[in-house]
Amino acid sequence: MDILKSLGHPEEILNLFRFKMGGCTAVMPKLDYESMSRSLRTCYLYLNQTSRSFAAVIQALDGELRHAVCIFYLVLRALDTVEDDMSIPLDKKVPMLKEFHTFLYQNEWCYTESQQKDRRVLEDFPTISQEFRNLAQEYRDVISDICHRMGVGMAEFLEKKVGTMKEWDLYCHYVAGLVGIGLSQLFSASKLEDPEVGQDTELANSMGLFLQKTNIIRDYLEDMQEGRAFWPQEAWSQFAGCLEDFAKPEKLESALCCLNLLVTDALRHVPDVIAYLSCLRNQSIFNFCAIPQVMAIATLSTCYNNPMVFQGVVKIRKGQAVTLMMEATNMRAVQMIIAQYSQQILQKVSLCDPSRDKTLNILAVVREKSALSQSNLPTRTHYLSPMYLSAAMLLAALSWQYLSTTAAQAQGTGNMPGH
Q1: 262-305 pLDDT, tens digit each
Q2: Among the options 105, 133, 228, 402, which is catalytic?
Q3: Which of 54, 125, 288, 341 is catalytic?
Q4: Is 140 an active-site residue?
Q5: Less Cβ around it within 10 Å: N or C end of the chain?
Q6: Alpha helices in 159-282 (DSSP H)
Q7: Catalytic (active site) residue 54
């Protein structure tokens, strides 16, 4: 049970209960699906089916921006599904990726031969493209342009591996940095943010790179098992003859050295993340941008020097995720979260790690940019008696069972039809 994993973190248990009892609506209010067209409701259904991380925060955006970002996500999910599908031969996949942006204006285009789990977005692409064409021109221009640039970049890396660290940056730019740039341009186009937000492509690119690098680092084992490799050769070749070696128990020390090197590289983007978030003025956009970023630094803190990256799935606790979602609603709180997880990484830096000096340097920069000293950070250490813990476990288990049932019943009355 999720609640048992958070027993040593009472604030997480409290937030899990608050979230179950409707606290989530403060950050992610429910949508009025009844007022939407049938095709738009279908698009939100696909959003919820295909997104593990972004569906909730997308649906919390204000006004017409919400629909634009929903369609943007689905278009790029469809493009990404083509890239990931190993059953499509290269001579067919490369032109598909490069021309994908043109399919947005073809009423009937779809692809029904995909073997991927998210193939529905390709099979029913006419519904998505129809809603794309219903968007205002300024939104359509951004989405089409980003889709085109991303497709060309994906095609480039289909025929070559991620070699140097610069190529890692370039690959992450194509698949995620462009997303950050496109989203920033949508924010400005909606008039909910100043034009400068959409014009500062360097900061927006860093937002995407930080998230993408975190995912690549965390997903080492899953990618290896599916025959994909995204860790840059320049990094792993310092410690092993091939990337697959890191999954071998006897290579654990080398694997951790490479892991820590890549985490250190990802942390380079955190100062830009802080600068970007500091520019936002709309609350729903701030939540949308800040929540994934604090989740990412929490994930990096969990991954750093962690052998489980090479042995299984590394995830932050659900109670931890819920707490971050509920807390990361203002810049002060985000700075505190970043400083806390930076401190956690700092405490795990080994004296013999080859990247030690670089890690310490970037952590110092991050702490300076977050403008918080260690003495300002609230403690999260709690001393609980065994008797309290036993009673808490029993109460938590009983309460969670009850709340899960009642919350599910309540949610069932408010969910969109068919979901």
Answers
A1: 999 999 999 999 999 999 999 999 999 999 999 999 999 999 99
A2: 228
A3: 288
A4: no
A5: C
A6: 165-172, 178-189, 195-199, 201-218, 220-225, 233-236, 252-267, 270-278
A7: no
